[in-house]
Design a protein that fits this description.
Radius of gyration: 17 Å
Shape: globular
Order of helices and strands: EEEEHEEEEEE
Structural class: mainly beta
Largest sheet: 3 strands, antiparallel
Strand content: 25-35%
Number of helices: 1
Oligomer: single chain
Length: 163
Protein backbone atom coordinates (compact mmCIF):
# COMPACT_ATOMS: atom_id res chain seq x y z
CA UNK A 1 0.00 0.00 0.00
CA UNK A 2 1.45 3.41 -0.92
CA UNK A 3 2.35 5.80 1.86
CA UNK A 4 1.73 9.51 1.90
CA UNK A 5 4.88 11.56 2.25
CA UNK A 6 5.45 15.22 2.93
CA UNK A 7 6.52 17.49 0.09
CA UNK A 8 10.04 18.78 0.78
CA UNK A 9 10.04 22.49 1.67
CA UNK A 10 12.09 23.45 -1.39
CA UNK A 11 9.44 22.05 -3.78
CA UNK A 12 6.32 22.91 -1.77
CA UNK A 13 3.80 25.20 -3.47
CA UNK A 14 4.10 28.80 -2.28
CA UNK A 15 0.77 30.26 -3.44
CA UNK A 16 -1.78 30.94 -0.66
CA UNK A 17 -4.41 28.93 -2.58
CA UNK A 18 -2.19 25.84 -2.37
CA UNK A 19 -1.58 26.26 1.37
CA UNK A 20 -2.74 23.26 3.44
CA UNK A 21 -2.81 23.36 7.22
CA UNK A 22 -1.48 20.32 9.01
CA UNK A 23 -1.75 19.79 12.74
CA UNK A 24 1.29 18.65 14.68
CA UNK A 25 1.06 14.97 15.55
CA UNK A 26 -1.42 14.41 18.39
CA UNK A 27 -3.06 17.85 17.99
CA UNK A 28 -6.28 18.84 16.24
CA UNK A 29 -6.65 21.72 13.80
CA UNK A 30 -9.09 24.47 14.81
CA UNK A 31 -12.63 23.94 13.49
CA UNK A 32 -12.42 27.19 11.49
CA UNK A 33 -9.81 27.85 8.81
CA UNK A 34 -10.70 31.56 8.57
CA UNK A 35 -11.53 34.18 11.19
CA UNK A 36 -15.27 34.11 11.92
CA UNK A 37 -17.51 35.93 14.36
CA UNK A 38 -20.99 35.22 15.68
CA UNK A 39 -23.59 37.97 15.82
CA UNK A 40 -27.26 38.86 15.28
CA UNK A 41 -28.55 37.69 11.89
CA UNK A 42 -31.18 39.24 9.64
CA UNK A 43 -32.04 35.67 8.57
CA UNK A 44 -32.70 34.13 11.98
CA UNK A 45 -31.34 34.42 15.53
CA UNK A 46 -27.56 34.33 15.55
CA UNK A 47 -25.47 33.95 12.42
CA UNK A 48 -21.81 33.45 11.59
CA UNK A 49 -19.96 36.20 9.73
CA UNK A 50 -16.64 36.33 7.89
CA UNK A 51 -14.11 38.38 9.88
CA UNK A 52 -11.71 38.24 6.92
CA UNK A 53 -12.01 37.65 3.18
CA UNK A 54 -12.65 34.01 2.25
CA UNK A 55 -11.69 32.99 -1.31
CA UNK A 56 -14.05 30.89 -3.43
CA UNK A 57 -13.75 27.10 -3.17
CA UNK A 58 -11.72 27.20 0.05
CA UNK A 59 -12.64 25.13 3.08
CA UNK A 60 -14.10 27.46 5.70
CA UNK A 61 -14.12 24.89 8.47
CA UNK A 62 -16.02 22.07 10.12
CA UNK A 63 -19.03 21.69 12.35
CA UNK A 64 -17.90 19.67 15.34
CA UNK A 65 -19.89 18.11 18.11
CA UNK A 66 -20.97 14.91 19.77
CA UNK A 67 -21.19 11.82 17.54
CA UNK A 68 -24.57 10.19 18.14
CA UNK A 69 -26.94 7.76 16.44
CA UNK A 70 -29.60 9.07 14.05
CA UNK A 71 -32.23 7.65 16.41
CA UNK A 72 -30.80 9.72 19.28
CA UNK A 73 -30.49 12.78 16.99
CA UNK A 74 -34.18 12.63 16.10
CA UNK A 75 -35.14 12.27 19.77
CA UNK A 76 -33.02 15.30 20.70
CA UNK A 77 -34.42 17.41 17.85
CA UNK A 78 -38.04 16.99 18.95
CA UNK A 79 -39.29 20.04 20.79
CA UNK A 80 -36.15 22.13 20.30
CA UNK A 81 -36.45 25.64 18.93
CA UNK A 82 -32.85 25.64 17.63
CA UNK A 83 -31.38 22.47 16.19
CA UNK A 84 -27.65 22.09 15.60
CA UNK A 85 -27.66 18.47 14.41
CA UNK A 86 -26.49 17.12 11.05
CA UNK A 87 -27.00 13.52 9.95
CA UNK A 88 -23.74 12.33 8.38
CA UNK A 89 -24.92 8.86 7.37
CA UNK A 90 -28.00 6.68 7.67
CA UNK A 91 -26.91 5.69 11.18
CA UNK A 92 -24.71 8.53 12.54
CA UNK A 93 -25.18 12.24 13.29
CA UNK A 94 -23.22 15.15 14.78
CA UNK A 95 -24.89 17.17 17.54
CA UNK A 96 -23.20 20.58 17.79
CA UNK A 97 -25.60 21.93 20.44
CA UNK A 98 -22.84 22.20 23.06
CA UNK A 99 -20.10 23.13 20.56
CA UNK A 100 -18.29 26.46 20.89
CA UNK A 101 -17.49 26.48 17.15
CA UNK A 102 -18.87 29.48 15.25
CA UNK A 103 -20.07 27.37 12.32
CA UNK A 104 -22.87 25.88 14.41
CA UNK A 105 -24.64 29.22 13.80
CA UNK A 106 -24.62 29.03 9.99
CA UNK A 107 -28.11 29.85 8.72
CA UNK A 108 -29.98 28.53 5.69
CA UNK A 109 -30.30 30.59 2.52
CA UNK A 110 -31.74 29.73 -0.86
CA UNK A 111 -28.91 31.93 -2.27
CA UNK A 112 -26.13 30.40 -0.17
CA UNK A 113 -22.49 31.53 -0.28
CA UNK A 114 -21.22 28.28 1.29
CA UNK A 115 -21.80 24.57 0.73
CA UNK A 116 -22.19 21.91 3.40
CA UNK A 117 -20.34 18.72 2.50
CA UNK A 118 -20.30 15.42 4.41
CA UNK A 119 -16.92 13.73 4.09
CA UNK A 120 -15.86 10.67 6.09
CA UNK A 121 -18.32 11.51 8.87
CA UNK A 122 -17.24 15.17 9.01
CA UNK A 123 -19.47 18.17 8.36
CA UNK A 124 -17.41 20.58 6.26
CA UNK A 125 -18.23 24.00 4.81
CA UNK A 126 -16.72 25.40 1.59
CA UNK A 127 -17.05 28.87 0.05
CA UNK A 128 -19.08 28.80 -3.18
CA UNK A 129 -17.78 32.23 -4.14
CA UNK A 130 -15.55 34.95 -2.70
CA UNK A 131 -16.97 36.04 0.67
CA UNK A 132 -16.28 39.57 1.90
CA UNK A 133 -15.43 40.49 5.51
CA UNK A 134 -18.65 41.19 7.45
CA UNK A 135 -20.79 39.04 5.13
CA UNK A 136 -23.01 36.44 6.78
CA UNK A 137 -22.19 32.84 5.86
CA UNK A 138 -25.12 30.73 4.75
CA UNK A 139 -25.71 27.34 3.18
CA UNK A 140 -28.66 25.54 1.63
CA UNK A 141 -29.76 23.02 4.25
CA UNK A 142 -31.25 20.83 1.49
CA UNK A 143 -33.50 18.05 2.76
CA UNK A 144 -34.15 18.64 6.45
CA UNK A 145 -36.23 17.38 9.33
CA UNK A 146 -38.57 20.37 8.77
CA UNK A 147 -40.15 18.55 5.80
CA UNK A 148 -41.48 21.79 4.30
CA UNK A 149 -43.24 22.91 7.49
CA UNK A 150 -40.90 25.80 8.34
CA UNK A 151 -41.11 29.13 6.52
CA UNK A 152 -37.82 30.19 4.97
CA UNK A 153 -36.61 33.59 6.15
CA UNK A 154 -33.60 34.05 3.88
CA UNK A 155 -35.15 36.84 1.83
CA UNK A 156 -33.31 35.78 -1.35
CA UNK A 157 -34.94 36.63 -4.70
CA UNK A 158 -34.97 32.90 -5.52
CA UNK A 159 -36.34 31.88 -2.09
CA UNK A 160 -38.23 28.57 -2.14
CA UNK A 161 -40.43 29.81 0.70
CA UNK A 162 -40.18 26.71 2.91
CA UNK A 163 -37.62 24.40 4.48
Amino acid sequence: MPRLTAIPAATAPTSPAAEVQQAPKGQVLPAERFALRVGPSVIDGLGVFAAEAIPARRKIGELRGEAISVREARKRAKGRERIHIVEVSETRAVDATESKDALRHINHSCAANAKLRISQGRVEFYALRDIEPGEELSCDYGVSHHEGRLSCRCGAPNCAGRL
